[in-house]
Amino acid sequence: MAWTPFPYPDLAYQYTAASLEAAWPLLHSGDREPFPTNPLLVQAWIAFHAGEFERAARLGLDVGVNGYSVAHKAICIYAHYLERSPQKKLATFECVAERCERQQLEQPNNPSGYYWHAYALGQYSQGISVVKALAQGLGAKVRNSLDTAIRLAPQRADAHIALGVYHAEILDKVGAMIGGLTYGVKKEECYKQFETAIALTPESAIARVRYARAMMMLEGKRKQAEAIGLCEAAARCAIHDATERLDTDAAKRELEEEKQ
Fold first, then answer.
1. What is the Cα–Cα distance from 27 to 6, expressed in whole angstroms?
2. Average pLDDT value over all residues in the chain
3. Using one digit for the tens of pLDDT, what is the confidence trace for 67-93?
4. Alpha carbon distance 93, 121 (integer Å)
5. Percentage of the chain surpassing pLDDT 90?
6. Phi, psi (5° rounding) for residue 156?
7. Confidence check: pLDDT of 260 > 70
8. Is 51 within 8 Å of 14 (Cβ atoms)?
9. What does the alpha-carbon distance between residue 129 and residue 224 come to, in Å, rounded to a whole number?
10. H-helix or E-strand containing 156?
């Protein structure tokens, strides 16, 4: 397939191996990925942070299962933000989820295999409708993978964000009673997960954007001012790579929608 290019190439997002290692703790505060020892994976991550998502994915997949973390992150960020075809998006997320299930067998202690499995299935579920996905049993798979990712890496902020989204989406679609009894989701737990994520990654735009969206989903106008405040803070977050640029753009769009 033809990949849509990252629309905001910037020399500020072009890292060398040395500058990438120096910036690594900041760039990866959300996923806590270890710095790679394989030179090909260093190049894959350099491509990822520059917005060269196709190159990052290909380099990662060429390495095999040890390259799945960078490959899946590149593929999922690309599909979420830049892929225009709904059908291709669904197929892409389905493919990532299947590959993650193989990764879980080969690397049962790698939180990345569980996080990207949950992320891909969550995006796929939103694409086909959350209610339909729940009927197919995908909700339980997402929850199990997120719980496992957090158990293996409690400091992994992106997993806490995803778990917050999980609670919000189900509560929004099926209500508090069915959501609580059938899926164990609660509004208070949703907010707790987002607060945890923001505490772990104070500079994260996407944590605030998703938190704002969850608030509006669950509270509507009652939390509008707070949601707008979160989006304003997200829009002011520093940008260190291509993904953060896309996250900040999402914050600005969300802010415009909330103010309407």
1. 18
2. 95
3. 999 999 999 999 999 999 999 999 999
4. 7
5. 92
6. -80, 100
7. no
8. no
9. 25
10. none
Say if residues 160 and 193 touch (Cβ distance below 8 Å): yes
Residues in the chain: 260
Q: Is the dihedral of CA 247, 249, 251, 253 positive or negative?
A: negative
Mean pLDDT of 25-52: 98
* Torsion angle of C-alpha atoms 239, 246, 196, 214, degrees rounded to 10: 140
Three-state SS at 18: helix
Residues 42-47: contacts with CB within 8 Å, 24+ apart? 42/17, 44/70, 44/71, 44/74, 45/20, 45/70, 46/14, 46/15, 46/16, 46/17, 46/20, 47/74
| Token pair recorded at residue 17 | 């191996």
Residue 1: per-residue pLDDT: 64
Distances in Å between the Cα of 94 and the Cα atoms of 25, 36, 72, 243 are 30, 26, 12, 21
CB 70 within 8 A of CB 45: yes
pLDDT(169) > 90: yes
Q: What's the whole-model pTM score?
A: 0.96
Residue carrying structure tokens 């992320």: 119
Q: Is 226 exposed, middle or buried (0-12, 13-18, 19+ CB in 10 A)?
A: middle
Q: What's the one-letter identity of residue 145?
A: S
pLDDT band, very low/low/confident/very high, at 110 (cuts 50, 70, 90): very high
User: Which residue type does 52 have?
Assistant: E
Measured CA distances, 258 to 216, 224, 251 (Å): 9, 7, 10
Residue recorded with tokens 């120096």: 22
Q: Considering only CA atoms, which of 75, 107, 105, 106 is closest in space to residue 91?
A: 75
Distance CA(42)–CA(69), nearest Å, equals: 12
Say yes or no to pLDDT of 250 above 80: yes
